[in-house]
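Service request form, structural biology core

Requester: graduate student, group of Dr. S.
Request type: structure prediction, single chain
Budget code: on file
Notes: please return the result as structure tokens.

Sequence provided:
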Amino acid sequence: MANYEMMVIIDPTLPDADLKTTIDTIKKIVSEAKGKITKEDVWGDKKLAYKINRSERGYYVLLEMELDGSNIASMNGSLNLEKNIWRYMFVNQDA
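Core staff response, request fulfilled:
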């Protein structure tokens, strides 16, 4: 198991209940990949460096986790199916 950091940008126009549901879905995807979230940091609504889906703002969430890197490919498939997740990126903290 390696330490990973995952930054997620979510559609900022979602109501609070849908934002929470989307974050819970991300956590479920991580747990299904046998990962363990060690820290969650919600940055909230921030200005984007460039427009995504014609929006200048995005809702940022940073998750730190312990995860086997071979499971990231299966997580990508699940994360790509979530329409409210605009962008995400994994960074290996051990490298």
